[in-house]
# Entry
Amino acid sequence: MNAEQPKELFTVHGDVIIGPTGRPKHEFPEPEPLDSHGPARIIAMVNQKGGVGKTTSAINLAAALAEYGRKVLMVDFDPQGALSAGLGANPHDLETSVYNVLMEKDVEVTDALISTHVPGVDLLPANIDLSAAEVQLVTEVGREQVLERALRLVRNDYDVIIIDCQPSLGLLTVNALTAAHGVIIPLVAEFFALRAVALLKDTIEKVQDRINPDLEIDGVLVTMVDLRTTHAKEVVQRIVEAFGDKVFETVIKRSVKFPDATVAAEPITNYADKHDGAKAYRQVARELIGRGGAP
# Structure
């Protein structure tokens, strides 16, 4: 009886997952500029597990898309306001936020928008007030569609709207999934993070079945990869086996430059534009556009 042959692992070379063929499956060239803007494709960045690089990925993906001429609106949908702070806004000083847009009939999205210091990127900010919306929306008619209705006003002004969700699967996240056309799942290369995704997939499927049949998973983005460990390489293999072509071929490696850029309230594409992390997020943007996940 022959011994079982070891399974060939997927590995990471540079910033790209390499499969059994020994080379990347696709090349994603720099996208062509757009002749006009809108209507936007709405993308929810979702993972109920915290600490997976979700907000960092949202900021840097938006900045990279803007570099390729896309107009981007960032929606901070986390009461912690990390996205807002990461784009230079002070959540404590906000007079009007996404909470007011959701809960007050006389407040529209345009009343709360902030122009960021990143060209081509605007922000709908959030602060701790948003935590009250989770409770208040329970009694609203059409409570799952409140965000979707609010964003209709500005969809034609942008090419991409990215919603940075809080680390939970509550009513706010369901609102984001209802408003979205696609979902990006940032996933750390750790076994516990992989196990947690099953519940998220179940929630996405329920939203698809009951509220938003057009919702699709745009991709799983592997983040915080430390290729010095066998564990990380094994998890990359498991992720590709579990999600197949849904996994972005580009991965984001762990780097001290990311927290440095966060402290500076800059995307890494601005803070260290030649850094491997900046190059990786530009690859993610090209891949997203090449897959049809963005105009």
Remarks:
- The first helix runs from residue 54 to 67.
- The domain at 35-290 is CATH 3.40.50.300 (Rossmann fold).
